[in-house]
Amino acid sequence: MDKARIHRLIVDKLGADLLLLQRAAQTAYEAATHEENVAENKYDTLGLEASYLATGQARRAAEIKQALGLFEHLNLRAYDASRGIQLSALVVLAAEDGSEQTLFLGPEAAGLKVVEQGREITVISPRSPLGQGLLGKAEGAEVVIAIGNSRQVFEVVEVH
Question: Where in the numbering of this chain does the Transcription elongation factor GreA/GreB C-terminal domain appear (predicted)?
Fold first, then answer.
């Protein structure tokens, strides 16, 4: 797997998501401030609702912009077995049922998914339980994640 290519896919996806959200926030802002949406009585809340929507979308756009900046300045490091899994690692995990998942340990944008050569790669951050569990681990290590009463066990199959 080409980690630099996957990194570029993540940056491109964040950039596309940012543009889309900025356009949506602008549209909601225009709806909120349009003269036809001025409240005529206390039950007329269309303008207020559009304002809330614009605020939420602008906030989400700011989060994506921050994540994009962090990813653009992320140094891709080669895997060093003596240090274990660190930020920018590309990790293949196997669950107890034999299923595998590929993860990119990034500074932000947890949950973002990209596809490279037919394989889905999910971004996780070190703040997530799985991200915390992976830090410092090596290939072949077992990672145990406890969430509530549930316990999940994974094996680190590959690290890039």
Answer: 118-160
Question: What integer pLDDT is reported at residue 30 of this predicted model?
Answer: 76
Alpha helices in 34-86 (DSSP H): 46-72
Give the Cβ contact number of residue 1 at 10 Å: 14
User: What digits encode the pLDDT tens for the residues 97-134?
Assistant: 999 999 999 999 999 999 999 999 999 999 999 999 99
Rg (C-alpha) for the chain, rounded Å, is 20
- Cα–Cα–Cα angle for 80, 93, 104, rounded to 5 degrees: 60
For the entire predicted model, the pTM comes to 0.86
User: In sequence order, what E strands does the chain have?
Assistant: 90-95, 100-105, 113-116, 119-124, 142-147, 150-159
The residue among 27 and 11 whose pLDDT is bigger is 11
Nearest to 61 by CA among 111, 17, 30, 9: 17
**Greatest Cα pair distance in the chain:** 67
In the structure encoding, which two tokens stand for residue 67, read together?
């994540």
The gap between the terminal CA atoms of the chain, to the nearest Å, is: 8
